[in-house]
Write a structure and sequence with these properties.
Helices cover 5% and strands 42% of the residues. It is mostly beta strands.
């Protein structure tokens, strides 16, 4: 169902491989701290990746629009809209040392038939982050207003995987 009453559900309706558990995160923008995953608190790790998908609230809002957010692609279907999830690799002091980007929705293609919003669990390779202590997630959208993103800033994660320890 559309609306914030369904803010915690993943579009696929379950976790990866039918599991009953996954994480739903909310990005508060400038109103609060970003969601942070700390793989290991006392060592730098090399991340493999994580499965990601849209939360139902975000997905239905971007494909239908609502009182606060536009329908992605606009009425004509050609507006160049996008919803981006950014992973920031952090060092032991919380400083950003690397980033990786994943589009949860991309409506910028020349052919509108190529436009998409993620509806399945999709693997996001995070090896490019290198050795990190933790990961912070932030979101960006083409639909912005006076107070930040108009698009609901929810996303879902499952099976966060590390490769091992990074050498210092």
């Amino acid at each position: 169902t559309q609306g914030w009453d369904n803010q915690y559900s993943a579009v696929p309706g379950m976790g990866v491989d039918g599991s009953t558990q996954y994480a739903t995160a909310y990005y508060a923008g400038s109103w609060g701290a970003p969601p942070v995953v700390t793989p290991l608190a006392d060592a730098l790790v090399l991340l493999d990746g994580v499965y990601v998908t849209n939360a139902v609230y975000s997905y239905l809002t971007l494909v239908n629009g609502d009182d606060f957010s536009k329908k992605f692609g606009g009425e004509s279907g050609t507006d160049p809209d996008w919803l981006l999830l950014v992973a920031e690799g952090l060092d032991e002091n919380g400083a950003v040392i690397s980033t990786s980007e994943f589009y949860l929705a991309d409506f910028r293609f020349e052919d509108s038939a190529d436009d998409y919003a993620v509806t399945e669990w999709t693997w996001w390779n995070l090896t490019e982050l290198g050795g990190v202590r933790s990961v912070a997630f932030r979101m960006e959208s083409s639909d912005m207003g006076d107070y930040g993103m108009n698009t609901p800033a929810y996303f879902c994660l499952d099976d966060f995987t590390i490769l091992g320890f990074a050498s210092n």
